Amino acid sequence: MKKFLQLLLLFIPAVAGAQMNSEFYPQMCDELQAVFCDYVSSEAETKYISSSHGQFVGQLVDNKIYGWGYFLSNDGARTFGQYRNGKHFFGITQTASVARVGSEEHFVEYDLETGGILRIHTKEGDRKPSKDYYDKMSLGKPYNGFYKIKYSNGDVYYGETYGGRRHGYGVYYWTNGDYWYGEYRDGYRQGYGALFKTDRKIFYGKWIGDRKVE
């Protein structure tokens, strides 16, 4: 059964989970996330790769990028999340003006100037969010946005928010150089993600209430 789930993970796209943002983009359910983490923990090695396109810090399987990783391109774009067979398949890509959250085939694109949603891209094409979303934006109370939050201790968060709290997918930077990518609920790390340390070690898996599940 475990081998079957591993093979399933290799070929199917991410599927919708029971998270708030699933109306905007699909996500892998917990069962497949667990299989993904189990697979890379037994097969992957963490590497730092510098190329003509940029720098990658993350996991490789059989010399192919596979697992959790972060890519900084030469043009300044940052891509965090999960990779499979050399290709980013779920996470956050942030440029100077926009941020995309989701998969390559299905994602929500945010305007970094306003924090609001620009479009929702699917296989069928692009669509705009509902009128209800724009109504809440106009009241200054968006139920989903992408913002930069700087804290008094110098830490910085870039990611999805709800009511001013970290909620959805985002990246948290500590002043010591460590950073964490993953899912938040009501301000706490809640779901799957990866902690990238300054010594290039990566700790990944599931967090509940801001604590990693062993």
The span between the termini is 22 Å
Mass-distribution shape: globular
Number of domains: 1
Helix content: 10-25%
How much is the radius of gyration in Å? 17 Å
Order of helices and strands: HHEEEEEEEEEHEEEEEEE
The percent range for strand residues is over 45%
* Secondary-structure content class: mainly beta
The counted number of beta strands is: 16
Mean pLDDT: 86
- Report the uncertain regions: 1-19
Question: Which strand order spans the largest sheet, edge to edge or round the barrel?
Answer: 1-2-3-4-5-6-7-8-9
Biggest β-sheet strands, sense, barrel: 9 strands, antiparallel
Put simply, the count of helices is 3
Can you describe what's shown?
This protein has 214 residues and is mainly beta. It has one domain. 15% of the residues lie in helices and 49% in strands. The protein is built from three helices and 16 strands. It has helices at residues 2-11, 30-43, 131-138; strands spanning 45-50, 54-61, 64-73, 78-84, 87-94, 98-102, 107-111, 117-122, 125-127, 145-150, 156-162, 165-173, 179-185, 188-196, 202-208, 211-212. The strands form two sheets. A nine-stranded antiparallel sheet has the order 1-2-3-4-5-6-7-8-9. Helix 1 crosses helix 2. The longest helix has 14 residues, at 30-43. The radius of gyration is 17 Å and the shape is globular.
Short description:
It is built from three helices and 16 strands. It has 214 residues and is mainly beta.
